[in-house]
Specification:
It is built from 16 helices and four strands. With 360 residues, it is mainly α.
Length: 360
Amino acid sequence: MNSRNKTIQWVVGGIALLILPLVLQYFGNAWVRIADLALLYVMLALGLNIVVGYAGLLDLGYVAFYAVGAYMFGLLASPHLAETFAWFSAHFPNGLHISIWWVIPLALLLAAITGVLLGIPVLKLRGDYLAIVTLGFGEIIRIFMNNLDHPVNVTNGPKGLGEIDSVQIFGLNLGKRQEIFGYDISSVTLYYYLFLALVLITIVICYRLQDSRIGRAWMAIREDEIAAKAMGINTRNMKLLAFGMGASFGGVSGAMFAAFQGFVSPESFSLMESIMIVAMVVLGGIGHIPGVILGAVLLASLPEVLRYVAGPLQDMTGGRLDASILRQLLIALAMIIIMLLRPRGLWPSPEHGKSLVQKT
């Protein structure tokens, strides 16, 4: 009976996720857009959870991999390279309109290589020192993207990259409104289903990793690195694998963000973004996949929802309070209250003893 109830819950949850954007469409595309961005942040938070939650490596520069994926797609799917470099326009006069089936593996691979390159110099570092170095790495990537418009214009600097192609799957352009079975479906709704599919694949991979030998090795390193090394675990390779695997999800999410926005610039990859992604993992419950998803959805959608609260509050004070500052204040207040009431996160992982009892 219990398994039957669980199956019913999964089916109901699946149907709810499928019809959610169609319902939100009636209230305006802005709400569907919030759901789209929330799904991208879920992917980012799950990627960071591998590094922070499983391996116990505090990474404050995770947004760098998001930027790498976004700029990779931005350069490959916009006219910027053809307009800037004569040799490129000679070989690709119509631009390089790369397929999504190439974009995802390329973004995954490039971000994973970047993650490993970050991991190599910080292998000996732990705790606060690791956090400071990774924070610096994230800022270096953002400044690098901002300044790489001189002497050779590669990233177009602070002006950013525009006219980025939208995703096309089996001839279906997700950047254009479609009419399917007489029902009008907006572009943001089509992107919702793509992001949902990618998130589901990410969740399956994370669950498989969690219960694998690699996942157990990461958790052993998190609990006690010296004991893990004494047990024969190659801590160096495992740490590099954690950085690479975590970064790969960030790269894919960044590429999808670039396709969704049609524009990328360095401002989208600030330090605040990295801190928000870390906050999603901590707030939801470090190392617990459902908790991380909950934290990501809440922190991604809360700032947008609070726009509708901050406006009336600003009017009540006669415009003396700035709406954006008030919104940040409300988010901070909500986070402080949650962490005081739930110090282990909103949905923490069960204690080891309890989980063993449940499994037996």
